[in-house]
Design goal:
4-stranded antiparallel beta sheet; Carbamate kinase; homodimer; alpha/beta; 20 strands; 8-stranded mixed beta sheet
Chain lengths: 413, 413
C-alpha cells in the first residue's frame, strides 16, 4: 500500500463536471488500495473573481485581508470534491490549510511553509478516508490565514508529501508530462519519462511553466519523487527525482530539454570607466527598485572601460531604462542601449557534466542557421543564450534536432 | 465608551458599494469612540450560489462538507469589509468563527453556540481596532467548521454581545424597526420604540420575519439589549429589552403588535372514540414524520368522542393528511378534514397580563366585520386565532384600529 499525494490545479477543477471527473480518478486510485491525500486549487477564474472584488474597494488592499478573501477559493473546491467523492461511495474529509496546521511564516500573500502536523491526516488515512486539503494556504502561529502566493498549491502538495513521507507526489495538470521542449514550437518534442530535480529547476526557471520553481526546490530538498501527469488523459507522465547514481550516464541523453522565453528585454551600459564596484553600482540601483534581473554579463574592453549587459522582464524595461540613464550619467558611462526584441534559450541536461563539447555543438547548430548569439551564460547543467526574437522557433528546432531530441514517430512540423 | 456589537445581513452587504456604505456607518460609530465588533452575513445571493454548486453534485451532500462550503460566503464579506474600513483609515481585523473560537456542538448545518472566547477580540478592541467576525459559523471541539443554519448571523451577534458583555447589540436590516404590524397591510402601522424580549419572541414565532427566534431567545437569556435598525436610513430603530419594572403599566399599550402568517394549513380529525393518549397517538405520528405542528386544539363532544385540530406548514399538508387518514382508520375515528385556505393572526402584548377583556375586545372587533373564528389559543401575552385566509387583511386592520395602534399621522390605506 502506497501513500500518494495528488494535486489538481484550477483548470482540473474548473467546473462541477471536472470536479466529478477528478473524484472518479481519485476513487480509482483509492480502490487500488493506495492511501490518498489530495491537494486542490481554486476553481479556475475564482481567484481572479475574488481579487476583482477586492480591487473594487482598494487598489492595494491589506495583505492580511487579501489572504482571508482568496483562501475561500480553495475552501470551496475541497468541499465540492469531498461531496463528489462521497457520492461515489468514497469517504472523504476536507481540511483548510489552518485546520491541518500548515504552519507558515506571516508573510501574507507569499508565505512560506514552516511545518505541517500530519497527525490528523494520518488518523483519517488509517480510517480508510481520502483526505482533501486546500492548496495554497496555511496559517501563521497566531492563527491568521496566510497564502503561499499564486501557484502555491504545488508547494502544498510537495510539503504534504514530505511531512507524510509519501511515496510519490503526483501533480495533475493540463499537459501529460514534461517535454524536451514546447510541442507547439517543435512538433517532434518528446515526453520525458524521467528528469532530475536540477534539470527540472533549470527548465522551470528558463520558462517552462509546468511546475512552480518553489515546489521543485522543495521536492528536491526533501527528496519527494514528483510526477507530472495529465488530469484529462491516462499515462505515466514524467517522474522528477534525484539522479540515479547507478544509471549508466552513457545511456542518458546529453541534453534533456530546451527551454525558452520571450518575456525579457536586454539593457546594456557601455564605456563605464573601470573601477571597483561598478557592477554593484549598476545592478544594485536596479534591484533597489524591485526590478528582477535575470542574465548578467560583464566584459572589460581594451581601454579598461566596462560593458555590462543584463535582462529584465519586458514589463520593467522602461523603468529600468530610466534608472540606467541616471546611472550612466553618474558613472560617466558612454552610452546605454535597450532592446525588447530578444528571446532567451537554454539547453538543460545533467549529461553535460560528463560530456565535452556540448557548448560547441550548440553554437554550431545556431551558426548553421545564421543565428547570431548576443549573450552567453553557462552553469553546470545549462547553457543559456540570448538571440534575436524572430529567430527563436528556428533556433529551438535546430537545437532539438542537433541534440537528437526529435521523436522518431512524429512528423516534423 | 460603549462596546457595541453590530450585525449586517446579506442585503446590507449585497454588493461592493453596500459594503462600502456599511464601512462608512461603522467608521462613524468608531470615530464617536465606541468599541465596535461587527458580525456580517454572506453577500446576498452568495449562499444560494454555493448551495447550487453542491446540489449539482449531490442532492443531499454530506453536512460536514456543506458547512465547509457555505461558510466561505461570510469569509468573503469579512475580508471585503475590513478592506473598506482600512480604506477609510479605520484599522480592522477579520476573523472566521473558528478563529475567534466560537465553539459549537457538532450538529452541522444547525449547530448551537456553546462558548465564545472573547480574549482575542478584546485585545484587538483595546488596540483601537474594529473587529469583524463572520456570522453564522463556528467550529466544534475537533476544529471542524460548523454553521448555525440560515439566519444564524443574528445569533452570532447576540452571542458575541453576551460573551463580551456589550452594551448593545444592533441588528441592521432592511426595515427601520419593529412595527405594530406589517406596514404593507396596514399603512397606519407604527414603528415601536421599545418592545420586550417576550413580545418580540411571540411576534417572531407568529410570522414577523425581522429577527430570528433563536437570537431573540439568546438575547433574552443573557439580557443583551437588542436594537433593530435600518442599514439604509438613519433612525433610532426599535429597542428590544427586558421589561422595565418601574414603568407605569397603565401608560403602556395593552397590545404591542399584530403578527400574522399564511404559511399554515389546518387538519381536523373528528369522532375519535375517547381514550387516554388520543392526542399522543394522533400528534405523535405526525411529529415522528418530522412535520412541525403549530396550533393544537382539542375538544370533547357530548358523546365523549374527541376532535383534534392542528396546523402544519402548507408544504407538509399532503403528507400530514396521508398520515392522518391512516391514524383515523387505526383509531376508528369518524372523519378527517384538511383546509389550506386559512391564516393565523395573533395579538401580542405584555400589557395583556394586567388588562381584563382583551380577548373580548379582539373577538368583538372581528365579529363586527363578520369574520368567523375557526380556532383560538391563548398564552399569557398573546391571543391567536385562525380565520379564513381571504379575511386576513380586513382582520388585521380591524384589530390595529380596535387596539388603538393606528398612527395618527399616516393616512389610512
Amino acid at each position: 500500500m502506497s501513500l500518494i499525494v495528488q494535486k489538481y490545479g484550477g483548470t482540473s477543477v474548473g467546473s462541477v463536471e471536472r470536479i466529478q471527473a477528478v473524484a472518479e480518478k481519485v476513487a480509482r486510485s483509492h480502490r487500488l488500495g493506495d492511501k490518498l491525500v489530495v491537494a486542490v486549487s481554486a476553481m479556475s477564474g475564482e481567484t481572479n473573481r475574488l481579487i476583482e472584488l477586492a480591487k473594487a474597494i482598494d487598489a492595494q488592499p491589506p495583505l492580511r485581508e487579501m489572504d482571508v478573501l482568496v483562501s475561500t477559493g480553495e475552501q470551496v473546491t475541497i468541499a465540492l470534491l469531498c461531496m463528489a467523492l462521497n457520492k461515489l461511495g468514497v469517504e472523504a474529509r476536507s481540511y483548510t490549510g489552518g485546520q491541518v496546521r500548515i504552519l507558515t511564516d506571516n508573510a501574507h500573500g507569499k508565505a512560506r511553509i514552516q511545518q505541517i502536523d500530519g497527525h490528523r491526516i494520518e488518523a483519517d488515512l488509517d480510517a480508510g478516508r481520502v483526505v482533501v486539503v486546500a492548496g495554497f494556504q496555511g496559517s501563521d502561529e497566531d492563527g491568521n490565514i496566510t497564502t503561499l502566493g499564486r501557484g502555491g498549491s504545488d508547494t502544498t502538495a510537495v510539503a504534504l508529501a514530505a511531512a507524510l513521507n509519501a511515496d510519490e507526489c503526483q501533480i495533475y495538470t493540463d499537459v501529460d508530462g514534461v517535454y524536451t521542449t514546447d510541442p507547439r514550437v517543435v512538433s517532434r518534442a518528446q515526453r520525458l519519462d524521467k528528469i532530475t530535480f536540477d534539470e527540472m529547476l533549470e527548465m522551470a526557471s528558463q520558462g517552462s511553466k509546468i511546475l512552480q520553481i518553489r515546489s521543485v526546490e522543495f521536492a528536491g530538498k526533501y527528496n519527494v519523487p514528483l510526477r507530472v501527469m495529465s488530469s484529462f488523459e491516462e499515462g505515466p507522465g514524467t517522474l522528477i527525482s534525484l539522479e540515479d547514481e547507478d544509471e549508466d550516464q552513457m545511456e542518458k541523453a546529453v541534453v534533456s530539454g530546451i527551454a525558452f522565453n520571450r518575456d525579457e528585454a536586454k539593457l546594456t551600459i557601455r564605456g563605464i570607466p573601470d573601477q571597483p564596484g561598478v557592477a554593484y553600482k549598476v545592478l544594485g540601483a536596479i534591484s533597489a527598485a524591485n526590478i528582477e534581473i535575470d542574465v548578467i554579463v560583464q566584459n572589460v574592453a581594451k581601454d579598461n572601460s566596462a560593458t555590462i549587459t543584463f535582462t529584465v522582464h519586458r514589463n520593467d524595461l522602461s523603468q529600468a531604462e530610466g534608472l540606467l540613464k541616471q546611472i550612466a550619467q553618474d558613472l560617466g558611462a558612454l552610452e546605454i542601449d535597450a532592446d525588447d526584441q530578444i528571446a532567451k534559450l537554454s539547453i538543460v541536461g545533467v549529461g553535460m557534466r560528463s560530456h565535452a563539447g556540448v557548448a560547441a555543438t550548440m553554437f554550431e547548430a545556431l551558426a548553421k542557421e545564421n543565428i547570431n548569439i548576443q549573450l552567453i551564460t553557462t552553469s553546470e547543467i545549462k547553457i543559456t543564450v540570448v538571440i534575436e526574437e524572430r529567430y527563436l522557433e528556428l533556433a529551438v528546432r535546430a537545437l532539438h534536432t542537433g541534440f537528437d531530441l526529435d521523436s522518431p514517430s512524429a512528423e516534423q512540423g
